[in-house]
Structure formats: structure tokens, C-alpha cells
Amino acid sequence: MSDHQADKAQRLADKLLPEINEFKHSRKTLQLATRNSEGQPNASYSPYALSENGFYILVSDLARHGQNLKMSEQVSVMLVEDESEAKTVFARKRLTFDTTAQRLERDTDAFKEGVLALQQKHGEMVTNLAALGDFNLYRLRPEQGLYVKGFGQAFKLSGAELLDVSWMTDGHHGEAKDPEVTEKVSA
């Protein structure tokens, strides 16, 4: 990548990363796509809290997605713009991640950190749920992501901390556009 292309890619990241970060922090729940041991998919949702270590969710073993998280650590998550906020329901702003789920053991610093993050975002109900034996705390660590802000505006998030942003050209599964044209993205 030339210096010129690298500068344009950096400008794209500088423009989009704050927007993506604000979007992540503005949502209260995330959609979960899990699967059971036979591969049967299940769509659900969970309140979450976000920290530098990933997304934290508190899930009951009584829920299908609670059982599925025990079977497979691969989870897809989506944060999506509320229908009432969207310009059109056909192009709602959304952020998806492929994640790895890790169940956190009680009485560990990681468990305490996750519960505290959830309490700060969702209140005292978290304390009550975390005390119940059938609830487990999971940390979901994003591996790659996709931010869609409208028609023709899909951006792949990659790199060690998902800070590399590239504009997708061939639907949501295509190759990133040449950074020469990424400057034309509107806010």
C-alpha cells in the first residue's frame, strides 16, 4: 500500500471508528446467533456491557442460547439501530461481529469485572441475576466485524483490535475497495 493509500485508509478509520464506538455504546442489547450440538441455529438477544476485553452477557442455562453457549464457543452478534430511529427499515445501521464466547468462573477478577460493567450499564437487577446459580457470565471477544451504515456503505473491521477499516465492494462478503475511493464515504 502506498503512503497515499495508507493516508486515505487512515482518514477513513479516523472518520468511522468514533461513529462505530458511539454506536456500540448507545445500544443496550445485542442479537445472538448460537447453535446447538446438532448445528441447529437459534436467534435470541441479551443485554450486554462493553469493555476493552469484549462484550459481557449474563445468560441463564434455562434459555436455549444458554445451553448453546455451552456447546459452541462460536457466536455471531449484532447490534442494530432501532426501527424508530432508522431512515428506512431496509437499511438499518448495524454492527456485526464473529466472536468467541468464554464462560467466566465465579469468584474470579474477570467475573467481577464483567458483572460490574453490566451493573453500571443496566443497574441492580444484574446483581440479583448474577447471584442465581443458573446464570453464567460470558465474555464475547470479537474476531472480525462488519459495520453497515446504509445502502452501499459496508465496512469490514479487522486487525488486532478491529481498528482497520475497509470499505466493502461486493455486498457484505466482497473485497475491500481500493483506499483511493474510500474518501468519498459520507458521514
UniProtKB/TrEMBL annotation:
Name assigned to this protein: Heme utilization protein HutZ
Q: Give the stretches traversing the membrane.
A: none
Q: Which InterPro entries match?
A: F420H2_bilvrd_red/Heme_oxyg (IPR052019), HutZ (IPR014419), Pyridox_Oxase_N (IPR011576), Split_barrel_FMN-bd (IPR012349)
Q: Which organism is it from?
A: Shewanella corallii
Domain (Pyridoxamine 5'-phosphate oxidase N-terminal) spans 17-148
Q: Which PANTHER family match?
A: HEME OXYGENASE HI_0854-RELATED
Question: Keywords assigned by UniProt?
Answer: Oxidoreductase
